[in-house]
User: Fold Amidoligase enzyme from Legionella israelensis.
Amino acid sequence: MNTQYETSSKDLFPPYLKNHEGNERLVGFEIEFVGISIDESIQLLKNLFSGNIKRLNQNEYILNNSCLGQFKVELDAHLLKQLAAESEKNRKENKMDIKGYIEQFISSALDEIIPLEIITPPVTIQSIQSLDPIVDDLREHGAKGTHTSKIAAFGVHVNPDIPSLSAACILSFLRAYVLLNDWLRNEIDVDFSRAVSPFINEYPRGYKKKILQSDYQPSMDTLMRDYIRYNCTRNRALDMLPLFMYIDEQTVKEKVGSRLIHARPTFHYRLANSNLNLPDWNFTTEWRRWLYIEKLAANELMQEEMVKEYLALERQSVFFNKNQWINTTSNYLQDL
Assistant:
């Protein structure tokens, strides 16, 4: 199925090819949208990848045994998923389904605000382009993404395997992201609805300055606790809580306590728009952007040079000159 991509996927590989267990790194994607039904969405996936559809409830479906693994389609709203699950239980037990009526009313009222979300299985790097037909078919079937309305802060998430569970490796990625954040937001042209929403907030200025100091060489425990102290929320463009939950579940639950954090040994990168309005945009587009973080994380010399320039610019004014830093970043990336 993927032979047409083999010759064009070589430039998609990151410097670190193995995950923390020594296996080939995988990456999963999530995309949010409105405009087509959950039934159409799961059928679209089956048409592309074969498999067996399983209905969990009216707001959650999975596609098992596809040629790439298990896909999931769900309504991206915790309350509605909870009501739908209880409604399904009532239906099976032949009980009066008050929860179902409430769920239907809320769901119809918020039809253009609460998105559906397709969650792909983790795939190999060379298989990323095999997922792009999902975007093409969503577009052809009338699905709408971020630009649907001024309040539709829909996005795409990229979830690559962590190459190492060492504090040094994780810190190198955090630093790379901080250094590239302004350039990435400009390159992506983050939609206004997402920029003003809390979902992709930047790290606090104090945290960025802290982790960029050359003498900041923390243990894993210190790295996690510092992150949580400044970022006790899932609402970050690079959300590290799922990874830290995987490393130390007790600490994250104790400090953050969110039931919505799912432990996994991956980064959770959430910056991208869901650009279904752009005909040439797809998952590969966003993976190529994420690759700059991968490459800078692996380039210690360039990272050190950029840190010095970033901190020097920080000291020049109370207000950080983002435009100047974006230009500086662009010059560095030509050599990355």
Notes: Residues 1-7, 79-84, 95-103 have pLDDT under 50 and may be disordered. The chain is about 45% helix and 15% strand. Residues 161-336 form one domain. The two ends are 32 Å apart (CA to CA).
